[in-house]
Each structure stands twice: as C-alpha cells, then as structure tokens.
C-alpha cells in the first residue's frame, strides 16, 4: 500500500488459503476483477485468528467492504476425512500446514472483523458460504444448520462464481458514495466510506431517499431481513417460500422437499427468488446471473495474473498449486448433475467455454513460468470433455428443470460435438514449446459411447476417444464409474456400469493398436446413500473380474448442498421423496469400505465374516478362490515356512 501510495484500500479480502495469483484461486480472481474495475484491492491471506486479531487490522479499514474468502475447498472437507480424521495435509497452505486455517473460517473471520470494525460491511463468498446459503446439513456437527449468514453475522453472500455480482456490487457501492448517501460514514479527512446500511440498500436496489438509481435486487446474492415486511417487494407470487429451518429440524422430509427447489432454481434460466424463515429472521436468495459469455470468461482468465504464489512463500510447497501450476481450465460448469457433486450448485450446469485464442494465450504464459519443461498436466475443466457443449435449441433449455442433461438419459437437445475440443488439443500440441499435453480431468465416457444419431458427431466422439488415449494419457487414465450396482448408480445419477465395460474394451483395443501399455484407473465410492454392504461385496467381485486392485476410492463424505447429502441427512431421495437406506454409523461405513481392499491379507478375515453375516457366503470363493479356508495370520505363516526351500 505504501509503494502504491494508498492511504486506504477499497476492498480487503480475507482469504483462508495461501495467496496464489492464479485463475484457479478464488481470492486472486475476485481481487484481479475488482482491480480491473479501478478499485484498490488488498488481500490478507490466512490471518491469525487468535489473541489480539492484529492481522485483521493490519491494513486498516476498507472504504467499501471486507470480503471473506474461506478457500477453494470447504474448510471441513479440506481438513477432515469421511471418518472425521485429520487429513495428512492442508492442500491450500504452505507446506501443507494445518494450523493456518480455522474450522469454518467464514464464521471466524467475520466475527473477528465485527469486533474490530462493527460498522464495516462484510460480504461472504467462496465454496463454504456459497453451499451454506440456506439451511444445510453439516456432517461434522451431524445436524442441520441455518444459513451461514445467520451464524456469521455478515451482511450478504455472493454465491457461485463471483465475477459478475461482485463487479455489479462495486458499481452500486460507488454510485452510493458519489451521490453522498446520507448513511455513509466519513473518516477524519472527510472521505466517504460505505456502511452496512448502504451496502444492503445497494444490494436491494431500493432506497427511500431516492439517491440510488432504480435497480432491481442484485442477482446472485443472499440477504437476511428481520421481518417479512422488510423483504423488498414483499413475498410475491413468483417467490418460492421454503419450509422454515425449524420445520426442517422437526421433520427431515421437509428438508428433502426444500432441496428439490434449491437445486432447480440454482440452474434455471428463469429462476425464482428463494425465501426461508429461520427463527425471527428471513433469508432471501436472489436468482443467479445468466451464465457468463465466452467474452466475459475470456476477460476473467486474461487478467494479469502472475500465476505464481506470493513471494512470502519462497521455498515452501503449496500442494494445490503444485497440482495445477501447469494446467489450463478450458471451461466452467458441468451438466452431469452427479448426486454427490457440488459443481452444479456452485458453477452451474451450463457450460461456459473460453475462446481458442484465450486458451492459447494462457498456454504461452505458462510456457514462460520457471520450471516449465514443455509438459501440460491438464487441458480440462470440471469434466474433461464438455467444452462448448450446450443445447441445440436454447428455448428448450430455458424451460428445462432437469438437474442433469445426461441422466437418466442423454437429452436429445444436447449437442455433444467433440470437434471444438479436438481443435484445442491439436492447436496446443502444435505449439513449438509444448512436448506433451495430458488430460488430468475426469472424462465422461458416456458422452463418447452415446449414439448421437448424427454421423459427424459419432465420428467426432470416436476421433476424440482415439486422440485422448493415444496422445493425452500419461500412462494412466482416470475415469469415474463410481459403483457397479445399477440401483446405486441411479441414485448417484451415473450411467450403468455396462458402459464402463464398453469403454474399457475400447481403451484396451486402442492401446493394442497403438502399441501402448497404459492403465485405466477407475474411481469408486462406498457408503453412498442407497448402497448396502451386499452391493459393495458385489463391487469387489466385479472389479476383481476386471483385474483391478483399486487405488482411487473414497468413503462418501456428505458436503452441503448436494442431493446425496440430503439423502444422508434425511433418509429421503429429494427427487422422489421416497425413503433411502443410509449406512450412517462408523461401523457400517467401515464394513462397506473394506471391500475395496479384498486383496489385502489383513482384510480377508473381516470380509469373510461380514459375507457370512449378510448371507452372501457364495461370494467368498469368487473373491478368495475355491479353497474356502478361514484365513489367519498363523495359517499364512505356516504356509510361508512350508514353501521355504532347504539350503
């Protein structure tokens, strides 16, 4: 600030992640976006929340607001495993340290700021606040909690990807200052500063004094009101009033019923306002902005990022940065609608794609980075092969309320053309400073195997499959069938496992034809709602037949604002409101997870005992061979001694 001659910042971002000036890190994106609008932006990464809170006052009071950015991952997912054990490292902290981020930084940071600057507006953003904008189930506290606005005491949430609402909020805030709004605060030198009252009126777009221009309520924001009468415009016919927080506590099925509306309105082209009462407060979620255009997305990615960690981290390793430092994001959004995934709730289901020129500019910038040796780790996105895919008829999309464009069947209106993505791959590989470009993002093989009833699209999908396998796999291709049981896959909103067999045959065939020896690495989930121990046992048998020893596996972790988490919390499927079995206890979860590791000697005894308990002893010889003898450490030791050859 001294170097730039700033006496005061306009916006101060409090980030729970280490600061990396890269378009994959939210604090950097919002900081660069506001800077482009002419604002003075300062960032305090990972402030110390203990003691006298001096880190929070380090840069003084901002002229407009404090922005709380709790991180690129939910803080609790980042810190704990599904078994609620501490993870080996914090992916977004220097050297993976765990002590630099509090649990629920959204709440902790807001309350720290409120103690120091009670009249300064606080605006929340990022994954943690975005997915907790309404009543939600918290796995780590095992209870339904109200909107994080109520727990934190902040003024507003900007949910989803924040460039558009943040830019608009800045414009409205500056209009209020320039019009000398009567509720502004002033420093000792007479400089006007925003207050919570003015910020709230700027978001509402309504001001009785008439000093603000006539705006509608700011889209993609969440606000709270002390009474129903304070809600701008009152509760209208187009508003959706959800069951109250207290009603959801008393009857979990109502929470599942709420989620159907929340998911639909998060991805609708003509979304309604959502309203939920919690105690004597009313939480109002304004509809989202339309998906960003290619020009808008290019503008965001073309901002002058250094693409490097801040110099304060010299000599330190930031795990998440190491993973993405030489990768390129081609698009945002995902229309898969997987039940356990938060992407559509945060980024939306509509694909927002960058232009070829913007992508090539970023590849050139990466080539200038220290340590780059000509290898790109990923040309991808939330899903690797959805670039530029959208509905043929936008009018049909505008009326659609399906959470997924490809489940239970691929929509006939979807244009699944892989040619634009092939063009990107080939343009990047043609650059003289690129040796290899790999695809690290997950591939939707159902899009590759689908009959598009169009010879050009079918040929493009086949060409893409061959190009991917022969040129863009670094030895191991990761795909995510997630389960082998069609009943569980339906609840996951994933395709039948038979498609995985088809894709694996194609994968093996192309490898043989190209003289390659590559592996396909499947991802699987245990303890997903609807999954019984028997189905995990069948998964073990099925994957053994395919000669897999599973590595990429996880126990289902309930995260806020997903269909699967709603099933977990309530025992009901939000889509049908029918009861769903949930393996909820640690013992039930352990019994499911152990089937991933049937090939480990130490698991065999427990697996055999569990198979007998559930009446599926018929699966024992399929897993462990025809010799169906109880396994013990002594038996293995005796066998080893017997096999020793005499000297």
In short:
The chain is α/β, with parallel strands linked by helices.
Give, in spatial order, the strands making up the sheet with the most strands.
2-1-3-4-7-10-13-12-11
Tell me the overall shape: globular
CATH class of the domain at 11-223: Alpha Beta
Give the averaged pLDDT, no decimals: 93
Please report the distance between the alpha carbons of the first and last residues. 77 Å
Assign the structural class, choosing from mainly alpha, mainly beta, alpha/beta, alpha+beta, or little secondary structure.
alpha/beta
CATH fold description of the domain at 11-223: Rossmann fold
Number of helices: 25
Main pleated sheet: 9 strands, mixed
The helical percent reads: 25-40%
Task: Estimate what percentage of residues fall within beta strands.
Answer: 5-15%
CATH homologous superfamily assignment of the domain at 11-223: Cobalamin-binding domain
Unreliable runs? 209-215, 626-647
CATH architecture of the domain at 11-223: 3-Layer(aba) Sandwich
Q: Tell me the total number of β-strands.
A: 24
Rg over C-alpha atoms, rounded to the nearest angstrom: 26 Å
